Amino acid sequence: MSIAKIIEISAESTDSFEDAIRQGIEAAAKTVRNIQGAWVKEQSVVVHAGNISKYRVDLKLTFVLD
């Protein structure tokens, strides 16, 4: 039997939503083992002078407990 836990993280990128997701998962994987999946809870952007300057995502990560 496996037990899973879900945590929520936020990440941002100056390039894209996809890059923010990738960076968030890679950063979390440095301290959280056994990440099995992720889902994007929310997306937002920061606008500066009429242009998107940052892409932000809130992610929920699922990992299996040892």
Automatic annotation (TrEMBL):
Highest taxon listed in the record's lineage: Bacteria
Gene3D superfamilies named among the record's database cross-references: Flavin-binding protein dodecin
Pfam hit, one: Dodecin
PANTHER family cross-referenced by the UniProt entry: CALCIUM DODECIN
Name of protein: Dodecin domain-containing protein
Organism: Thiobacillus denitrificans
Taxonomy of the source species: Bacteria, Pseudomonadati, Pseudomonadota, Betaproteobacteria, Nitrosomonadales
